[in-house]
């Protein structure tokens, strides 16, 4: 085994414009120095990591390598796949000074060590197994199948080439799928399609990159490219980071854009989001940040396979509604919840996931509230979350409470100290009697608690009846609210219809007004009714298309007041104006002809003179 230790040199900073330099040392499994250097830039360290192939890189502060987390992940991703990065100053979830860690490990440290000495101490500590590994890789790998080059516009041959290329992507994707299935890999598969076939295929394999060696190979050709990439985390994580274990209920709306909503066992919102193009592991990581999921819910029936897989990985019970939740039902549930908690939810994916989580919560909330009330009345010190989790798993409330009481009793029994008998004790029988009496008292306590449980169970029956009555009333109110919502939608539709009819009435009124003006014009002889064949030859009217032509050129049809079959209604004044315009046009054309004839005569006379 080889370990590389590095430490930033004095006066250097990864945030400065000038690249920082480091002291580097490499030791073997015996602790012997095989390589050391000072004033080494980061590029040299990366080269040494590939050339000398150490098994570990030890640092006292991983953030000495980059100014921020994003760049740090990028730098660590450039290291060899099997290389492990260890922060030796983070031990048992506590940050310590490297000198203190070294002394605890039995290493001699005097004063403040130099960067080279610090690098050596870090390497030795990592060799001894001290420190915490830095996790930057997810336990998954992306396999991306795409075109080797862009395809531009072209003719028939180009289209045929595009089809062949898409067919090639499909064949390679099928072959990789067969290999993954044959070796039992868990994966998700997404494709980008067009009318001619597959443009791109992406496999998300839930295994590290190393597990795919020899099964799927990289490919980079003229027509096709197969890339295999380990997936890196967006944030640095230490290997022993502990997760929150508070029980939560999770609603999931699967699809290209995934909706996730997390609430606690009191129905309070903890987290809501929608993310595009995230895979199953990303969803699981988000959920685990907020607690231990005891119930996974969706708003559809049957349950999508992706939700089933997430539930199986998290070992959570799956809530399946009796039927697919309608849009009205989801809106009603979410709107009421949003009003209670002062939230504004516009995202449809968040709305659907939250509706699923709330539907699951409302189905079990009465049982959870009964259990809380029972525990308060019994006034016993048991873990409430474990009782509620037990109830969600499907056991009865009595079984869950008794189970926790038995745990407490067992704990109490274990705390009773055993008597220390010696041959010199004269009160042996007294102590035996005392223990027997204590044992009887414990049995009486158990019986008393069991009687109390039976009493509480009877009260629960009465309360359950009352809850059923309230639930019936609530359902009536729910139906009433739903009816109000439907009536509101109906009113909105009627308002839209009224507005449409009002616009139509306004159009008809304008038409009537125009017709009245035409009638008045006919009475006053200001307008004439003329057949299309009675019009002057320079005016043509197409009554079917409602078009007007003057000397075969189309003009604005507004000069005709009304088209009536093969007749039209026009103003007398308009006809006179058109007649004058026609005469002017004929006069202009005759003048043009006279000028043309004069020019021709002039040219002929000039030619004869020559």
From TrEMBL:
Coiled coil: 432-525
Protein's recorded name: DUF460 domain-containing protein
Xref: PANTHER family: DUF460 DOMAIN-CONTAINING PROTEIN, POSSIBLE NUCLEASE OF RNASE H FOLD, RUVC/YQGF FAMILY
Top-level lineage group: Archaea
A Pfam family it matches: DUF460
Stored InterPro entries: DUF460
Keywords for the protein's UniProt record, in alphabetical order: Coiled coil
Lineage: Archaea, Thermoproteota, Thermoprotei, Sulfolobales, Sulfolobaceae
The keyword Coiled coil is annotated on this UniProt entry: yes
Species, as recorded: Stygiolobus azoricus
